[in-house]
Amino acid sequence: MTATIERTFSSLRVPNYRKYFTGQVISITGNWMQIVGEMWLMVKLTGSGVSVGLTAGLQFLPILLFGAWGGLLADRMSKRTLLTFTQMAMVVPAVTLFVLALTGAAQPWMVLALVLVRGSILALDNPARQSFVVEIVGSDRVLNAVALNSVVVHCSRILGPAAAGTIIAVLGIAPCFAVNAASFIAMLIALRTMDASKLHTPKLAERKGGELRSALRYVARTPELRIPLAMMALVGTISFNFQVLLPLLADFTWHGTAATYAGLTAAMGVGSVAGALAAGARGRVSGSLLVLSSLLFGIFLIAAAAAPTLWLQILALVPLGAASVTFAAGVNSSLQIAVEPVMRGRVMALYSIVFLGSTPIGAPLVGWLAEAAGPRAGLVAGGIAALAAAAFAAAAFRRADSYPRQDHGIESAGDGRTQPRSGSGRTPRPQSAGALRLDRR
Fold this sequence. Notes:
Oligomer: single chain
């Protein structure tokens, strides 16, 4: 038991990561309070599922359009410096929304505009944040660190909505935005006080033409990257739309209040934390894990849609949260392990594009479906997409010869270089030293 606990939290032995972890807990909790505030404000201003879906989608539209350039910037400059800039910039839309909500001047178009501003900053922030983790802990601990980051996100998903629901009920929506603005101070302190000499900083990418095209070609010919990204593109577009569906379930299906919304979100967060902790204790990531987690994700989405009462739906959201974070953390970890360091920012930008940038496409569609056929239909659609992703990946992994997982005493691909298969005549595809055979266990 002690060994399992130590393995689960091994990245916290790294002083820089402890600072980053603490700053993330505070900052992301504030971010979830802002998200709850934005969604609930739009529900009350418009009463429209499409408007709520548009709000969720707009914050990630810049990632879809410009995320690849954000990843390129992360490869070209210090990620720590870039994150310091984005954390300071995030304060502006939070403070502006606070003033608008406090004075009662908020209009739907104003909320949407500020959400778009925040999304534009996220297009720079997210690729740097995703790829900075491995610089803090090194490649040996990346799977554990990614899992602990998921713990942060989903603990914050519990704390943020719970705090936001209480604040909205007692003080109104505006203080949610003020708390988020203040929360960025914690992350700025963490970044400022890190020991730069202990960071695993890779060589920065050279400035030359065609860098984005080369990253796309690199992913296209590397199944260890291509298959997980394809899975996330489908699941991210249709299945990960809880920001849209949970407030609509609370308001339209259960005729509840902000506390109902917070309860649904917190229930899913409990399962997500459990799934993230389990992922942190795991020593490897495999193709079978991604297939299984996507399969379970789809099953639990459909089960949540079928729940006849609020309490049964809350109960169903717990395993749904566990399956969702197991899938997302597995995709993230597999990419971090397989990618060459000089490409990490751009590949993690592609991850952000298919995971978050797909939201502007999926969220309005799911919001429209929820408005036309009810929020339960949105859950069912997500379940079908996750099941389809599992079926696709199972077939694709069988066709592919190898899959990345951590090199912890397991047979690896030698020196990390890929040789052409005997008699195949194929061009070698790039692999990292951790690129291993597909684990079918």
